[in-house]
TrEMBL record:
EC nos: 6.5.1.6
Catalytic site positions: K249 (n6-amp-lysine intermediate)
Protein name per its UniProtKB record: DNA ligase
Catalytic reaction list: NAD(+) + (deoxyribonucleotide)n-3'-hydroxyl + 5'-phospho-(deoxyribonucleotide)m = (deoxyribonucleotide)n+m + AMP + beta-nicotinamide D-nucleotide; ATP + (deoxyribonucleotide)n-3'-hydroxyl + 5'-phospho-(deoxyribonucleotide)m = (deoxyribonucleotide)n+m + AMP + diphosphate
Function: DNA ligase that seals nicks in double-stranded DNA during DNA replication, DNA recombination and DNA repair.
Entry keyword Transcription: no
EC category: ligase
A biological process term (GO) from this entry: lagging strand elongation
Gene3D superfamilies tied to this protein: DNA ligase, ATP-dependent, N-terminal domain (1.10.3260.10), DNA ligase/mRNA capping enzyme (3.30.470.30), Nucleic acid-binding proteins (2.40.50.140)
Cofactor(s) the protein requires to work: Mg(2+)
Gene Ontology MF terms in the entry: ATP binding; DNA binding; DNA ligase (ATP) activity; metal ion binding
All copies of domain ATP-dependent DNA ligase family profile, residue ranges: 327-455
């Protein structure tokens, strides 16, 4: 299949904002894709080469890309760089450079999707000495045979800047419609494997029946089960039917650990592969997890003096590290608190009730210095649970989780089987959708960020306030750098920003207000931290804000 056909799809996707039309385009494309390409095409359509959880990455920045295009076209690097200033987009500038290419090579071959993908794999796998040069050569070869429009999309894929508005939900619907299977089954299979390539293949070749037989697999991350809020311990206990497992809610980063013999892979909550950054945890897992094959889940916590938990940002600092890892092991020691088991030696356990999963977890784990079982209290007594809650807070934890003893594991679902209890007026995680350029000394910096909550029904981000305080000058410089490439529109000093960046915001109160279409406005919002561990769709929802507003009013009434 020719790459030109894919380029044509990207172009059509870019031209329409209509979801139904986009879905149809993607679905038609999947339908005509040959079987052997089905594993990779969904990712290419999403503007990626590999799933996010795949460790491989291209490792090509703008500089190297420009060099490759220059090599392929004879257009000087400087000229391509300058042209980006006019077009505002490297993809467009690559297309222009390819148009200028003096002569077509006699041996030029039309690009196929297979060749493009294979080259990407080679680029990703090039490592060690001379790898930059090899990457450059592979890329230049592609651009040499690329038509201008193909070059534009190749560049965007390489840099991860494809903006065709195809997200996960749309891909799910397109797969369902392409192969005449049920969207719920596509969704289920995807929640279990996080692999659209695999799901598309099963949908096409095995239909609804095949999809319903998809099971959790070691080596493919499952979407985590999430929790709703409870106002207090008592309410949680009632909701759980009078008896529940209460567990400490550790304030760290959630991880999913896949063990297969002596191979361990650890995924973050966003299902990124973080294995390499935490080798001491890998060693501890090998020592502690007894079965040959297993998938367990837990919260990774940074511990300080006297074993006291440190804020979750410390763990994220560990995840981001590529160098000096040994030094970080010393500086930020980690402890993994396991709270679930999803797979043991060939048996998927997500349909097993929680109480039995916990029993199994206790069986298969031998605790060591770094790996522990989440502290748990199974009780029918609200007083006992309240005591546990107070103790958890005193120890510096976030609060408690309450879990239904008979509940199955629901991947990706935020239901009522798990409830979290923590002090109310918690901070919110919101998405930046706009900003203002500063004045005077700060004229070159973005400030006063318009933040929004997610509305899962419409898929839109609805504004709830403007955050201008809590930032240091360094924060503002960092945010400006990060957000500039995401600017979609400018009007005077106001800019509209593509919803990508999530920040944690504290505030004094939630007010009902007509000022924003959400109907809510935050009073005195203040920046706390960048939430790199969350995608925009994982930001707090507008329903959550409505719920917090209710809590707040109830609390006020009690005082
Ligand atoms: P928050 O922003 O409050 O951390 P969240 O949106 O990240 O919440 P929730 O579903 O609201 O996720 O809360 C559950 C999270 O709490 C889990 O994703 C996990 O990271 C963390 N956690 C800590 N301790 C436990 C535990 N014992 N059992 C389950 N989850 C736990």
């Amino acid at each position: 299949m020719k790459y030109a056909e894919l380029a044509d799809l990207y172009r059509r996707l870019e031209k329409t904002t209509l979801k139904t039309l986009k879905t149809k385009f993607v679905s038609d494309f999947l339908k005509k894709a040959p079987d052997e390409l089905l594993d990779i095409i969904p990712y290419l359509i999403l503007g990626k080469v590999f799933p996010d959880w795949d460790e491989r990455e291209l490792g090509v920045g703008e500089k190297l890309l420009i060099k490759a295009v220059s090599m392929a076209t004879g257009v000087p690097e400087r000229e391509i760089e300058n042209s980006v200033r006019d077009t505002g987009d490297l993809g467009e500038s690559v297309a222009l450079a390819l148009e200028k290419k003096k002569q077509k090579s006699f041996f030029s071959q039309p690009l196929t999707i297979k060749r493009v993908y294979n080259t990407f794999v080679k680029i990703a796998e090039a490592s060690g000495q001379g790898s930059q040069d090899r990457k450059l050569k592979y890329l230049a070869n592609l651009f040499m045979d690329a038509q201008p429009e193909e070059g534009k999309y190749l560049a965007r894929t390489v840099l991860g800047t494809m903006r065709t508005g195809v997200a996960e939900g749309l891909m799910r619907d397109a797969i369902a419609s392409a192969f005449g299977v049920k969207a719920e089954l596509v969704e289920r299979a995807y929640m279990l494997t996080s692999d659209f390539g695999y799901v598309a293949r099963v949908a096409k070749l095995k239909g609804n029946e095949g999809l319903s037989k998809v099971r959790i697999q070691v080596g493919k991350p499952i979407r985590p089960m999430l929790a709703q809020n409870a106002a207090n311990v008592k309410e949680a206990l009632v909701e759980m039917g009078g008896k529940a497992a209460f567990e400490i809610k550790y304030d760290g980063a959630r991880v999913q650990v896949h063990k297969d013999g002596d191979r361990v892979v650890i995924y973050s909550r966003r299902l990124e592969n973080v294995t390499k950054s935490i080798p001491e945890v890998v060693d501890a897992v090998l020592e502690s997890v007894k079965p040959e094959k297993a998938i367990v889940e837990g919260e990774l916590v940074a511990v300080g003096e006297g074993g006291k938990p440190r804020p979750f940002q410390y763990v994220l600092r560990r995840f981001r590290r590529k160098y000096n890892i040994e030094e970080m092991i010393e500086k930020i020691p980690l402890e993994l608190n396991l709270f679930d088991v999803l797979y043991v030696d060939g048996d998927g356990m997500i349909d097993t009730p929680f109480s039995e999963r916990r029993k199994k977890l206790e069986e298969i784990i031998s605790q060591n210095e770094r790996i522990r079982l989440a502290e748990q209290l199974v009780t029918t007594s609200a007083d006992e649970a309240e005591e546990f809650y107070q103790r958890a807070l005193e120890l510096g934890h976030e609060g408690l989780m309450a879990k239904r003893l008979d509940s199955v594991y629901e991947p990706g679902n935020r239901g009522k089987k798990w409830l979290k209890i923590k002090p109310t007026m918690e901070d919110l995680d919101l998405v930046i959708i706009g900003a203002e350029w500063g004045e005077g000394r700060r004229a070159h910096l973005l400030g006063s960020f318009l933040v929004a909550a997610f509305d899962p029904h419409s898929g839109q981000f609805v504004p709830v306030g403007k955050v201008g305080s809590g930032f240091t000058d360094e924060d503002l410089a960092e945010f400006t750098k990060m957000l500039k490439p995401l600017i979609v529109r400018e009007e005077g000093k106001y800019v509209e920003i593509e919803p990508k960046v999530v920040i944690q915001v504290t505030y004094q109160e939630i007010q009902k207000s007509p000022k924003y279409e959400s109907g809510f406005a935050l009073r005195f919002p203040r920046y706390v931290a960048l939430r790199e561990d969350k995608s925009p769709e994982e930001a707090d929802t507008i329903e959550r804000i409505a719920q917090l507003y209710e809590f707040q009013e109830r609390f006020k009434a009690k005082r």
